Amino acid sequence: MSFINLREKIVQVKIVYYGPGRGGKTTNLEYINRKFSKQIQSEMVSLKTHGDRTLFFDFLPFNMGQIKGYDLKIQLYTVPGQVKYNATRKLVLKGVDGIVFVADAQEQMREKNIRSLNQLHENLTSYKESIFKIPLVLQYNKVDLRNQGIPILPTSVLEKDLNSKLKVPAFEASALTGYNVPETLKKIISSTVISIQKKLM
């Protein structure tokens, strides 16, 4: 549940970018950090683990106004993708308000995407959260690799693998070029804000 600072009248919202290793979570945050530098309030902190890293920074959303007279402050996090860092991933999910699941659209990553999504489901369950109830957006990243002749899964296959039961918003994207990165971010922020508003009613 989002953290509410009654004295300063701020609702602090935690959004986590989750997905398989090297899928583009960090690249998403780096792009957001560059593109919206005016709205970013803090340095991007990178916690390196062996061969992987967790990133986070505070982000001031644009034109989101207030919730019940409270200002919004968004914290964006990534989790390390490699399987051996599941304990870290689980820790980063504590108190999460919204999730972007970054799937790697390359054909060779199909199984890893499914495994990572299942693990997200398990990790949320351990906090008594449901993947079916928490605000969630899927991003099918690296579609730009098609142009380089790299085999990419059709969106219909990614939808069948990852979204047939969840039925959440999904975007084809390229974190490297920024294609649909802001759209993914805006969608998860608006879904999360709607969810928090309902809880505060």
Task: Write a concise synopsis of the structure shown.
The chain is of the alpha/beta class. It has helices at residues 25-35, 86-92, 110-125, 155-163, 181-200; strands at 3-5, 10-18, 45-49, 52-59, 66-67, 70-78, 98-104, 136-141, 170-172. Helices cover 31% and strands 26% of the residues.
Structure notes:
The chain is an alpha/beta fold. 31% of the residues lie in helices and 26% in strands. Strands 1, 2, 3, 4, 5, 6, 7, 8 and 9 form a 9-stranded mixed β-sheet that branches. β7, α3 and β8 form a beta-alpha-beta unit. The protein is globular and about 55 Å long. The relative contact order is 0.19. The model has no long low-confidence stretch (mean pLDDT 87).
Total helix count? 5
Rg, rounded, reads 16 Å
Distance between the termini: 14 Å
Shape, principal axes of CA atoms: globular
Q: Which structural class is indicated by helix and strand composition?
A: alpha/beta
**Beta-strand residue percentage:** 25-35%
How much helix is in the residues? 25-40%
Identify the notable features of this structure and list them briefly.
5 helices, alpha/beta, nine-stranded mixed β-sheet
Topology:
Elements: E1 3-5, E2 10-18, H1 25-35, E3 45-49, E4 52-59, E5 66-67, E6 70-78, H2 86-92, E7 98-104, H3 110-125, E8 136-141, H4 155-163, E9 170-172, H5 181-200
Parallel strand pairs: 2-6, 2-7, 7-8, 8-9
Antiparallel strand pairs: 1-2, 3-4, 4-6, 5-6
